[in-house]
Amino acid sequence: MYGTVARMRIKPGMAEAAHAFMQQSESRPVPGAVAVYLYQMDADPNEIYMTVVFASKESYRANADSPEQDAEYRQLLSFLDGPPEWHDGEILFAQLSAEADAG
To answer: Is the Cβ–Cβ distance between 55 and 32 less than 8 Å?
Structure first.
């Protein structure tokens, strides 16, 4: 598996709209996409971390290079103080609890 962790700063007053946009954009079917998680930091509600999991580096790159993803990224930038900080890499370990499987 392969993925990215992104750190983003939402513009003040844009958190609700940004969250709605991210949820809506993640509903687009993407080949190889496994999971997306958004975290809103307790210490600063305008700081968001997003983790994205893909089945392979190839499927991640295909999505990253797609015109659809580029259009969504450009829309996302309108909600942010600046571009996200991206950290791409191989996923070495993943585990879901029994509760996660049942839910």
So the answer is: yes
Instruction: Give the whole-angstrom CA distance, residue 82 versus residue 63.
Output: 22
Average pLDDT (5-13) is 95
Mean pLDDT of 32-38: 92
Stated pTM of the model:
0.84
Domain spanning 2-94, CATH architecture? 2-Layer Sandwich (3.30)
What's the rounded Cα separation, in Å, for the pair 101 and 22? 24
Identify whether the C-beta of residue 19 lies closer than 8 Å to the C-beta of residue 38.
yes
91-94 LR contacts (CB < 8 Å, sep 24+): 91/1, 91/2, 91/3, 91/53, 94/1, 94/53
- Phi and psi at 7, nearest 5°, equal -110, 130
Q: Are strands 33-40 and 47-54 parallel, antiparallel or unpaired?
A: antiparallel
CA dihedral defined by 61, 65, 70, 76, rounded to 10 degrees? Answer: 20
